[in-house]
Amino acid sequence: MLLTEFDYELPEELIAQTPIEPRNSSRLMVLDPGKQTIANSRFSDLQQFLEPGDTLIFNDTRVMPARLIGHRQPTGGRVEVFLLRCVKGNIWETLVKPGKKALPGMVIRFGQELTGEIIEATDFGGRLIRFSYAGSFTEILDRLGETPLPPYIHEKLTDRERYQTVYNRESGSAAAPTAGLHFTREQMEQLKKYGVNLGFLTLHVGLGTFRPVKTERIEDHTMHREYYSISEETARLVRETKALGHRVIAVGTTSIRTLEAAANKKNDIVGKSGWTEIFIYPGYEFKIVDAVVTNFHLPTSTLIMLISAFAGRDFVLQAYRQAVRDRYRFFSFGDAMFITSPAQR
Hints:
There is one protein chain. 40% of the residues are buried. A hairpin with a 4-residue loop joins strand 5 and strand 6. This protein is an alpha+beta fold. It contains six helices and 19 strands.
């Protein structure tokens, strides 16, 4: 398939720059691929599209304050370092701007308590940096680091917690699992009382989120690996939901990728952890996921390809065109979509 087949026109003013309050007051577009219907609702009304016995699966990762501003030694030139993942000990995989001068041996100072030396370039255009510091790196990062926002968001975020889900637990992501930003604690409690099960897994969002697809044929694109973990408790909940004939509903593309990466076969999954490079695009046969809560995604991104695999490319692009006409808000702080079932195959 060609990259151009996943493109669409989006006016820049529809890219949401700030979150809305309360979190679940966003709009919700409801898609039924089987019936080919599109309806408009509110996220606060999500319960009316769920049934007792359904299971929502959330990604409980927490975004690190991963953006560091430092100065190259000894010249003092400004350098931006974006932490992606800890490779080992005090060595991290990062993105560095400006990249042309970011050569092995370069030393960067971040205030008085942290320095980093570039030791190696990576296959995906990043850099490995060895950090030197006294005390706790986590505490230093909390003091010096900034919450990274996607490049299409230009407004400064006054409350860092608004780029975190209310159920975050495991620090390690370079970006938020943004479909989960819509949920409030109160709404989650209401869903539990209604009979909907809530399960949690972890996928730490990494470089793949920021790498555009540059190959003409999407099949030639290589995903960057990301760490995931799914407990046996969550895996058992998924198996029991399936056995009882109810739906497993993934909250966000990261939950989809984790569930499908951990699946053994159709309707079968076990608790495990590891690294995944799974790339889901049209033609993929889903093993676990029955319905999806998701945001609207960038044109030609791997995320719109994933959603197209689930709901059908033509139908997804039809829905996106309607969302543009209806002035939905797009991307991280934008509105949401609920896809009730996979496309008929």
